[in-house]
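Can you give me the bound-state structure? Components:
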Amino acid sequence: MLSRSTNPIAPVITIHAKFGASEATFLSGQEIHGQGERADAIYEVQRGAVRSYKTLSDGRRQICAFHLQDDIFGWENGLNYRFTAEAIVDTTVLVVRRQILEYVATKDVQVTHDLLSMATNTLEHAEDQMMLLGRKNSGEKVAAFLLEMDRRLSGTGVLALPMTRRDIADYLGLTVETVSRELSQFRTSGMLMFSENNQRRIVLIDRQRLRRLT
Amino acid sequence: MLSRSTNPIAPVITIHAKFGASEATFLSGQEIHGQGERADAIYEVQRGAVRSYKTLSDGRRQICAFHLQDDIFGWENGLNYRFTAEAIVDTTVLVVRRQILEYVATKDVQVTHDLLSMATNTLEHAEDQMMLLGRKNSGEKVAAFLLEMDRRLSGTGVLALPMTRRDIADYLGLTVETVSRELSQFRTSGMLMFSENNQRRIVLIDRQRLRRLT
DNA sequence: CGACTATTTGAGGCGTATCAAGAAGTGTGG
DNA sequence: CCACACTTCTTGATACGCCTCAAATAGTCG
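Here's the bound-state model for the whole set.
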């Protein structure tokens, strides 16, 4: 049984028993796979959240994607992972051995087609992110981030962000301080509220105005 | 017969007669397909060069890719093109109707697999570009651009760039002036030369030093 | 409680954008 | 072929958005 998601960057396929999936759990901060390692598995998030990123030799980091519940990550065309993937909170994933998936894909055109859809959806997200990174200012970036997370986490306007400000900054091509300042400014101008005792819990008060900013 | 390219962002499949490809020519500046239009064809560059870009309502533009000889573009998962594609010089393309390609793909797992490889290669390029746009400074961006174009155009260190400085700027998330200044500085410091009577003809003198900059 | 990390906020600096002007290159009509 | 208009490219002066550095506050975990 293959399930399709309406979330443009959510998985197109659900990893099924026929792929011989196993389960694995990672604590917050643990690495799931490393940049350059042999890519011999793909993953689906069951619970938790994951960041996929590249780093330059001097430590600059670009997070290319956050993987949330039901998202699939780790698909590679080449031999090695081009990213490091780390759990950003305690996370459980399904693991499918790549060899098995590829074997099934040679037999089943539908599986290959679903992989294609998944890759294309990831590509669409990357292309939108290129516009964001190359041409948007810091306010537009942070507003777009909040709306993306709202859409992907719940759609209710109440966000429990799993990632730090640093993660957000490295996703948006900004510094921590700039992210913090933009959030503060959105709060001051009445577009959102922080939870009393948790800075990562954010309530979007005026999503329409945030949307106009992007 | 399917051909594979060693160029990571070159096409994996060659559009073949079995897809009922036809040929079309576009003059410099002409639109091949528009953002939002119904995506009913995919293209392979035979001669010339193409830019694919998105624009914001206020005119800011992000070029997501340059398509050179043998590159395939215009593949979409959804109904509509997410880009505008324009010829940046006089260009001839092969055109395959999407319906036909998709029909063949349902029958031939190899075709679907090749589309997957193509999408994955495009994705890899987009992910590298995210690092460039989000975390590199203007010198690193321009150096990376020159090396990419050298690799894709010839590999000889002698570049006949088809695109304007503005196109380069919109590809790198910079302004025309900054691109021009970086190129001038590379020239002053002996890393490259401009042709006598054509500013788009560039000879890379010290590619090793350019590589160290990226 | 104490050590540590995450976040916010302020002051000041830097890198790239903006604005402006001139030079170089291109295309068109005479 | 030149004259002219137009676009592209370069270069300089200045502005400003975001980064850097610093320090205080808030939150987390032993």
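A couple of observations. The radius of gyration of chain A is 18 Å. The first helix of chain A runs from residue 98 to 107.
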